[in-house]
Design brief:
Layout (H helix, E strand, L loop, with lengths): L10 E3 L7 H11 L5 E8 L6 H10 L7 E7 L3 H11 L6 E5 L3 H12 L9 H15 L4 E4 L9 H12 L7 E5 L3 E2 L2 E2 L2 H18 L3 H6 L10 E4 H6 L8 H12 L5 E5 L19 H19 L6 H28 L6 H24 L10 H7 L3 H12 L4
Parallel strand pairs: 1-10, 2-3, 2-5, 3-4, 6-10
Antiparallel strand pairs: 5-9, 6-9, 7-8
Helix pairs in contact: 1-6, 5-15, 7-12, 7-13, 10-11, 11-13, 12-13
Length: about 400
Amino acid sequence: MGDFFQNGEVTNLHLFSRNNVEKLERELLEFSRVRPLALVLPLLFSDLKSEAFLKILAELSHIQYINEIVITLGMANKKEFLEAKSILSPLGKNAVIIWNSGDNIQSLYHLLNKENIPTGGDGKGRAAWMAYGYVLANGKSYSITLHDGDILTYTREFLARLCYPVSNPNLDYQFCKGYYPRIGDNKLHGRATRLFVTPLIRALKKIIGYHEFLEYLDSFRYILAGEFSMVADLARINRIPSDWGLEIGVLSEVFRNISIRRICQVELCDAYDHKHQPLSPDDPEEGLLKMTIDIAKTLFRSLSSMGVVFSEGIFKALVSTYIRIAQDFIAKYHADAIIDGLNFDRHQEALAVETFVKAIRIASEDFLKDPLGSPFIPNWNRVTSALPYFFDSLLKAVKEDNKDL
């Protein structure tokens, strides 16, 4: 059972009871008549045969309140795409696959680049963005829910709780982010959140002082959670990063575009587990080091766009402040693990913090060289302004790829 504490600026919707999933689903089915819901699943072909996704597929095949399921498939050749169609067939006719590696979708990316509309490289950010475009082009859904395809602890309740706050017209939230404890194999996970993002935000608060964006970010209980729901109109106006800065970038755009009182976070489950990234402490192009570099750069650029001035001296102070706060967090989580009988390796936790220090230094150097960096993927309003026929072309491309589904 969750607590009932309301921390920070964002409303917390807690998990008090595990006995009302049927009630939530009945109400979601009723809400879907006037607020139809689209589910977006960014997947790699390698995800499709995993234990996690097969469980997700089994659960989704029985869900009745979802209006459309959009699978955005990356890094798949034609043979794999055809196999993906077969695997996903239990989802029925309300499911479509956006084959990001296929000729039809690739031609659309080339068209966008020709029109100087940058979409970044292949990855989750671009894949999700194209799926949002399809939902908008289709015009059949009020809201969009997104979650990953590698969730080992997935349940019907997980999905219902994620969809509910935006679907329920009596609550009328426009954006809802999921949160959960990252505990599995009798130990704490979530190093990038526990030991990097939260200590980094706290360090920035000490150096910059009060800033409403930092207070907002610090309100999220699991800031790097990949699960959220939103009204579809937000997909029209939000820009998003194409790299690992996706979650921070999304929260930055949500902060910019809607009132905080219409933002919430919902507790989805008692424990959450999915595949884990390697630390890769010596390779800035892989693993958690790459991830945290991208996250830090997105955070710095978001703050800079709000008028925060960074300098070499501020970044040096930030590294020192971060180290002290992160070390304190290690001690806190050590005590947390001990009282609950969890395994806790302080050496590995310290190694993670040392790696994250590298990430801050690399990110700060990159930021000082190029404060703008790679642009966010533009919002869909810009695309349809430049290319009024693009949605028709997207629908045609997806229909062609899915004609035998």
